[in-house]
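pipeline stage [seq->struct] | target=Molybdopterin synthase catalytic subunit | organism=Strongylocentrotus purpuratus | residues=146
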Amino acid sequence: MDDVKLTTDILSVERAVQTVTDPSCGAVSMFLGTTRDNFDGKKVVRLEYEAYESMAEKQLNKLCIEMRQKWDLHNILIHHRLGLVPVTESSVMIVISSAHRRESLEAVQYCIDQLKATVPIWKKEIYDEGDGCWKANKECSWASKS
């Protein structure tokens, strides 16, 4: 089962783990990306995410296919928030189950790296002074390489 979702809702770790857990699996691995309160000495108060939603969902589903070709995985869940994400809240959640830990751990690492590099989701940091800055992922395949 692949569960890919873009949402403005708060991400639920408990629900996600329940979704991917299966009696045939001995491992559930997870990555949570959360909003931190600082960047380069500036106080961050929230993040704002936007996406080209139809393309982002297509890329996330493609990523699930790629991971299944590389590892023996049971369930894959990739949820990403859009809109406002306050400090300490999760913006991205990846939860993967497999029979053994190595597959799910490696797949989670691969998933977040490829998500950052290929999925059209953009992040704006909003600072306590009221200004903001759109941030490019250094892994992003369409970012300029200088």
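stage status: PASS
auto-comment: The longest strand covers residues 42-51. The mean pLDDT is 93.
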